[in-house]
Write a structure and sequence with these properties.
Strand content: 25-35%
Bound molecules: S-adenosylmethionine
Strand order of the largest sheet: 5-4-3-6-7-12-11
Radius of gyration: 16 Å
Distance between the termini: 41 Å
Order of helices and strands: HEEHHEHEHEEHEEEEHEE
Helix content: 25-40%
CATH superfamily: Vaccinia Virus protein VP39
CATH class: Alpha Beta
CATH topology: Rossmann fold
Number of strands: 12
Number of helices: 7
Shape: globular
Largest sheet: 7 strands, mixed
Structural class: alpha/beta
């Protein structure tokens, strides 16, 4: 099954978590209930750093765009899954449907881009993703990135692509490329995209950084 189709079905079912299996056997859970709920206090503190206009890459059901709009900050989501786009728009978000690698709304005009809750993994090649997002930023723009917790068994420089699939109640998606990037592994892909880490922080057990032009 197409990953977007299974993802959309789980969104409509209001699933609390989504199981991801990597082709190397690693299995982890992603917090779908969190994506469907309003932004948490930790999310709100990340958004305190966001200067508008904000581009939310892979906005899912749109909680960050909704939270920014409530603050009066101009925000736009880009999202691949038509079901997630519907959820986000139902909540009042402006969203462009399509892939970040194909859709380029107002290049050069964004002050902040968001890659939150695992979205640094989109496309499986963090360097390419960061280059693409950096292209869309204004001169003083920055990217707020959420990072994976440091794993015990992975090298800190490991931002290599992996193949994953979504699993739920007997349904499995086709394999698709993804990446997991820890706080110790973000510098190299950032540098390759002409960016540098200007802030790192942890909050509520989650890990974040700000990337600005080098
Ligand atoms: C891990 S979820 C995060 C959702 C949201 N950022 C949040 O924190 O609530 C990843 C989202 O990225 C979307 N996505 C995956 N590949 C994409 C692409 N190439 N372009 C745009 N969105 C994409 C997925 O459909 C999904 O909604």
């Amino acid at each position: 099954m197409n990953p977007s189709t299974l993802f959309g079905r789980l969104l409509d079912d209001g699933a609390d978590a989504l199981t991801v299996r990597a082709s190397d056997g690693d299995v982890w859970s992603m917090p779908m209930g969190r994506w469907l709920a309003p932004a948490t206090e930790v999310d709100e503190r990340v958004l305190d750093r966001a200067v508008g206009p904000v581009l939310d890459v892979g906005c899912g059901p749109g909680r960050h765009v909704h939270a920014l709009s409530r603050r009066g900050v101009v925000a736009l989501g880009i999202e691949l899954s038509p079901t997630a786009v519907r959820h986000a728009r139902n909540g009042g978000a402006e969203v462009v449907e399509g892939s970040i690698f194909e859709v380029a709304p107002d290049p050069g005009c964004w002050s902040t881009a968001l890659l939150l809750d695992g979205n640094i993994g989109i496309g499986g090649q963090p360097r390419q993703l960061l280059r693409r997002v950096a292209e869309l930023l204004g001169d003083d723009g920055c990217i707020l990135v959420e990072l994976d917790p440091e794993p015990g068994d992975r090298a800190p420089e490991d931002d290599a692509p992996i193949r994953v699939r979504i699993e739920s109640d007997g349904s499995t998606s086709a394999w698709f490329p993804w990446a997991r990037v820890t706080a110790g592994a973000i510098d190299a892909p950032a540098e390759a995209a002409g960016l540098r880490v200007t802030e790192r922080w942890s909050d509520g057990g989650r890990h974040f950084c700000t990337l600005s032009r080098a």
